[in-house]
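Lab notes, practical 5.
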Amino acid sequence: MEEKKGLKKNLGVATAMAIVVGCVIGSGVFFKPQAIYTATGGAPGLGMIAWIITGLASIAAATVCKLIPLILLMIFGFVKGGGANPIFTPMVGDGLSPAVVLGQLMVAILFAFEGWTNVGAIAGEMKNPGRDLPIAIVGGVSVIMGVYFIINISYLWVLPANELAGMTAPASAVALKIFGDVGGKIVSVGIMISVFGACNGFVLSGSRVAYSLAEEGNFPFSKSLARLNKAQVPTNSIILVGGISCIYAISGQFNLLTDLAVFSSWTFYTLTFVGVMKLRKDRPDAVRTYKVPLYPVVPLIAIVSGIYVIINQIFMSGLQSTLLSAGSIAVTLIGLPVYMAVSKRKSVNNIVENDEKILT
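Output from the prediction step:
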C-alpha cells in the first residue's frame, strides 16, 4: 500500500518566530495610529498605554529586512524629531470616557498584533512543536510589543497625536517629515514590502488551515484542496486563500475589514481560552506537550481581555461598532450551513464506502 504523504517536518523555532514577526508586523503599525488617536480625541496618553496592554493580552492569549522601515523611522525620528510633543498626556480628549476609548483602542491595536496565532497552523511542519511553538509566540510577540511601543514614541517625537489622527497614512507622513520627498518615498516602499511580507505569512499559515480541513473532508472541494505538489506544499489551498484575500482587498476599506477581523478573531480566541480551562477540569490526567504557565492566571487575563473587547464593541462604542460586530457575526455564521452540508455529504460517503467493503 502506498504511504500517504504529509507535510514535511522541517521548521524550527527560528523559522516559527520569524513567521510570528512576519505575520504580525504588516500594515497595522503603519496605518492604525490614525484610528488610535482619533479614538482618543487627539490625545496621546491612553493610546501609548494601550500598545503595552494589548501586547500583554496577546502574549497571554498566546523577517528581518521588513524591519528596515521601522528601524529607520525609530532612529531618525528621535534624531531629527523635535521631541516637543506630549507622549503620555493628556490620556484622552475632553468629554471622552477612558473605559470606552480603551476598548476602541484595543480593537485597533489588536489588528497590529494579529497574526501571532498563525504559527500554530504550521505546527505540523515543525520539528518539535511542543517546545518551539510557545517560545516562538511569546518571544515573537514580546519583540513586536517593544518595537511597536518605541516606534509610536518616535511618531509622536516628530508629529503630535492630533495631527496623526487626521492622516490616513501616518507612517508615510512621519517619513516625509524626516527624510523629505525622496527619502519619504523610499521609506514608503519599505512599508509596502513589510505589508507584502505579512501577506506572505498569512497566506502561508492560512492555507494550512484550509488544507487541514480539506484533508479531513470537512471543506468544499476537499480532494482538490488536500492535494500536495511535488514539494509537499498545498498549492491549491494557497491559491484559495490568496484569491479570497484579493477579493477583500479590492474593497479598499482598511479599517472596516480590520475591525471585522479583530472582532471575529477575538470571539474565537476567547472561546479557546475558556476551552483550555474546561479541558484542564474535565481531563486533568490528559497528556499535554505544553502547559500554560502561571495557570489559571494567564488564561484568566486572556479571557477578561477578550470579553472586554467583545462587550465594548457590541454595547459601548456606538452604533457603527455595533453594526460592525453584527456584520462580523453574520459573516461567521455563513460558514455553518456550508459546514453542515459538507459534513452530511461526508457521512453519506462513509456509509457508502463501508457498504462497498462489506459487499467485497
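Observations recorded by the TA: The radius of gyration is 22 Å. The mean pLDDT is 80.
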